[in-house]
Design goal:
mainly alpha, 160 residues
Length: 160
């Protein structure tokens, strides 16, 4: 990246990560599990900023100001029928596509691949954060979350 990312590009890139993670969160939504998943997502993004300090695309995205801007209110609205129909994940993948287009236009192949892996890592952190049982106990990653993770990986051209 020879020129800095614009604020619009930064917004698209951070939304690519956050909307995918939010879609996974919505699949098995519960009051306690949402809190646990949000904390896990925050930790994953904090760790990613250190883990990918060498990656100019991710380092710029995961600074405090970019994360503070986060998602627009419309990105946070999820209707139950969108979850049941799979539209919540479809909508997130549309955001991922826009983000990947920016990444490909602005960075080399390895940097873009790291960005794609970070999208998956954020989604996996959310999926593993809480189980389906009482108080988040039980199986950590539900079958629906596994399916969503597989679809996200496939969409990004990544293997497990």
């Amino acid at each position: 990246m020879t020129q800095p990312l614009s604020e619009e590009e930064k917004g698209l890139l951070i939304r690519g990560i956050l909307t995918a993670a939010m879609a996974v969160m919505a699949i098995d939504m519960g009051i306690l599990s949402c809190a646990m998943e949000a904390i896990a997502l925050g930790r994953e993004l904090e760790n990613a900023s250190r883990r990918h300090a060498h990656n100019p695309l991710i380092a710029v995205l995961l600074d405090a100001e970019a994360l503070r801007r986060g998602l627009a209110e419309e990105d946070l609205r999820v209707e139950p029928d969108e979850v049941r129909s799979g539209r919540v994940l479809d909508r997130a993948l549309e955001q991922v596509d826009q983000a990947m287009a920016v990444a490909r236009a602005r960075a080399d192949e390895e940097t873009v691949r790291d960005y794609a892996r970070q999208i998956v890592a954020a989604c996996e952190a959310v999926a593993r954060a809480a189980g389906a049982g009482l108080f988040g106990t039980g199986e950590r990653v539900s079958p629906a979350e596994r399916d969503a993770l597989a679809r996200i990986r496939e969409h990004l051209g990544l293997r497990e």
